[in-house]
Specification:
This is LptF/LptG family permease. It is a multi-pass membrane protein. Keywords: Cell membrane, Membrane, Transmembrane, Transmembrane helix. There is one protein chain. By secondary structure, the protein is α+β, with helices and mostly antiparallel strands. It folds into two domains: about 240 residues, no CATH class; about 90 residues, no CATH class. About 60% of the residues lie in helices and about 15% in strands. The chain contains twelve helices and six strands. It has a six-stranded antiparallel sheet with strand order 1-2-3-4-5-6. Strand 3 and strand 4 form a beta hairpin. The two termini are about 50 Å apart.
């Protein structure tokens, strides 16, 4: 890599990083609105909002990064074009493909990072986010149990306390829970206390009874002491079903035979192929944009037209790719088309960049007089 290529590549990457931070921050702030309820109504510390925002960042970056490197490439080359730097480089013997090399290198680097985000960081952070929110809703909701009210800790858990004493103990407790297997559990106790444990929040109950309705039969048990787990029940084995964004690539491309995986088999496979195809969009975006900028005649009077054309191509590729990922879950025949819509524009753009520039011959003065 010569000094010119290295300099241009560093410029593109610098602008891409800044653009990624700005775009990602804007999207994260918009997505973080759904966490405000945990802070305002459930007492989640405001400092935890930053951690939750960090957990959703990899999923956003996997989409934002290709767009950012495209914008950085267009910005850098257009600035060099208006400053006549590209004209000087062409005069020095650099053809279109050599001029496009820094942008393509930046796109390849972006593609590697996009794969890292999509194949590793996104499932890891999504799993952590799900676990954290489940625990936070249970623990914080339990701490903020209001006396004399039915408190919905989760969709499947409601707690009533007649009174809260100064030391935090709860008097006159009623707890109703719906289990994942369909059983309904109601616990009545004279008193209880919320405590934290390594596995999450619990309520220590004293002097009460537990009634369980299972398959139409009622089971009644009296107790002197009882521990009720507030953390959402963690399913295991065949009952576990993870969202597509929480899965690693092998789990997406080869779903299990569990009922959930069988029902959503097409969507899981489409998501897996989408993670393989989408990062390649960075190269397609940049290659197509560079063809527009480097292969069209530059005019200061209409210098915005190539940029608008490049942006239109980028948006078109993005929309088509997202549509194919969504539709491929129902129509598996679209999976090869998904790859084709990424690879074909890239190959065509690289061919056009490598093809020798065709210059128009200017008419001689004598020819103009004859006309």
């Amino acid at each position: 890599m010569n000094s010119i290529t290295r300099h241009m590549t560093s410029q593109i990457l610098t602008v891409a990083i800044v653009a990624s931070v700005i775009l990602c921050t804007a999207v994260v702030l918009q997505q973080s609105i759904r966490f405000i309820d945990l802070i305002v109504n459930r007492g989640l510390p405001a400092s935890d909002l930053a951690y939750l925002s960090l957990l959703i960042t990899p999923r956003i970056l996997s989409v934002v990064l290709p767009v950012a490197v495209f914008g950085a490439t267009i910005f850098t080359y257009h600035r060099m074009q208006t400053g006549s730097e590209l004209v000087i480089l062409r005069s020095a013997g650099m053809n279109s493909f050599r001029l496009a090399k820094p942008g393509l290198i930046a796109a390849v680097i972006c593609t590697f990072f996009s794969y890292f985000f999509a194949l590793y960081l996104m499932p890891v952070s999504s799993q952590e986010l799900r676990t954290y929110l489940s625990t936070a809703r249970s623990e914080i909701g339990a701490i903020l149990i209001k006396e004399g009210q039915f408190n919905a800790i989760r969709d499947d858990l409601t707690i009533y306390a007649r009174r809260r004493e100064e030391n935090g103990d709860l008097i006159g407790l009623i707890i109703h829970s719906e289990q994942s297997n369909g059983d309904q559990v109601t616990v009545i106790a004279q008193r209880g206390a919320v405590v934290n444990s390594p596995t999450g929040a619990r309520i220590l109950l004293a002097n009460g009874r537990q009634q369980t309705l299972s398959q139409g039969e009622l089971h009644d048990i009296e107790f002197e002491e009882y521990v009720f787990d507030l953390v959402e029940e963690q399913q295991t084995g065949p009952e576990l079903w993870q969202q597509p964004r929480e899965r690693f690539l092998p789990d997406l491309l080869s779903p299990s035979n569990s009922p959930g995986d069988v029902a959503y088999r097409g969507e899981l496979i489409a998501e897996g192929h989408g993670r393989l195809a989408q990062p390649l969009l960075a190269i397609a975006y940049v290659a197509a944009g560079l063809v527009i900028l480097l292969k069209t005649e530059f005019s200061r009077q209409s210098n915005a037209k190539p940029i608008l054309a490049a942006v239109a191509i980028m948006v078109g590729l993005l929309v088509v790719n997202l549509g194919l990922i969504s539709s491929a879950g129902k129509y598996a025949v679209l999976i090869p088309v998904m790859y084709g819509m990424v690879v074909a524009p890239t190959v065509v753009a690289l061919y056009l960049l490598a093809r020798p520039q065709q210059f128009k011959r200017r008419a001689k003065p004598s020819e103009l007089q004859e006309i």
